[in-house]
Specification:
The protein contains 3 helices and 13 strands, in the order H-E-E-H-E-E-E-H-E-E-E-E-E-E-E-E. The protein is an alpha+beta fold. It has a single domain, classed as Sandwich (Jelly Rolls), CATH 2.60.120. The structure holds N-(carboxycarbonyl)-S-(naphthalen-2-ylmethyl)-L-cysteine and fe (iii) ion (FE).
Length: about 220
């Protein structure tokens, strides 16, 4: 006996879930492209290796980061900014690969942002214990564009609130292949990632990756 295709599709890719005003979780949206994305990611990380950035406050971030695209995000004790050149190598960041741009555009469209063109992708890699404290993303020039975030590998507990730091935080789990699109009123929501639990994932081993596609310029 075979399951009708309709039910199989519903089982592998549930309906979008509204997380907030303008914010949509697309569960497992990118599962079928995860292997292609991870193979391309390995190539990018050979050109622009992951590194621990320093916050302006002088702390070392637990998450390791890199970037690709026309610009990349960089943080050091003198502040955060987008740069055209990777400060580690002195060369341009690797170009945004077509498979990244395609996933970002398709997810944005599915969430109601049909004209999204990313010019940068921030790459975060978490190992057990790594976290990201609640913050806003506001270094991009025009905050009218959404951010598309793709999670790969181990699941993380993610928290998000409102535009003020004191707004209450809600929690959700971001699992392999999940995409969240943050636009509209949710673009300036505070958000963070709780310390990653140790685990093993068939495609990423002991890591969780998050790719966030942005229009920075
Ligand atoms: C909500 N990354 O790189 S992705 C970041 O899982 C960042 O690595 C997290 O926060 C991670 O800045 C979260 C989800 C996300 C990304 C951008 C947002 C949520 C957002 C921008 C506005 C509101
Ligand atoms: Fe963020």
């Amino acid at each position: 006996m075979s399951t009708p295709d309709l039910f199989r599709d519903l089982a592998t890719q549930p309906e979008p879930m509204r997380l907030g005003d303008g914010a949509w979780l697309l569960p497992r949206f990118a599962c079928d492209r995860a292997e292609a994305v991870l193979a391309t990611l390995a190539d990018i990380l050979r050109q622009a290796p992951l590194r621990h950035m320093q916050t302006p406050g002088g702390c070392t971030m637990t998450v390791m980061m890199s970037c690709c695209g026309d610009r990349g995000w960089h943080s050091d004790p003198s502040g955060y900014r987008y740069t055209a050149v990777d400060p580690l190598s002195g060369r341009r960041w690797p170009p945004l690969p077509p498979v990244f741009a395609a996933v970002a555009a398709a997810a944005a469209e599915a969430a109601g942002y049909p004209a999204f063109v990313a010019d940068t992708c921030l790459i975060n890699r978490y190992v057990a214990g790594a976290k990201l404290s609640p913050h806003q993303d506001r270094d991009e020039r025009a905050l009218c564009h959404p951010i598309v975030s793709l999670s790969l590998g181990l699941p993380a507990r993610f928290q998000f609130g409102g535009p003020r730091r004191r707004d209450p935080l809600l929690r959700t789990t971001l699992a392999h292949g999940d995409v969240v699109v943050w636009g509209g009123a949710s673009r300036l929501a505070y958000h963070g990632v709780l310390p990653l639990d140790a685990g093993h994932h068939a495609l990423t081993g002991s890591f969780r990756y998050n790719l966030s596609f942005r229009r920075a310029g």
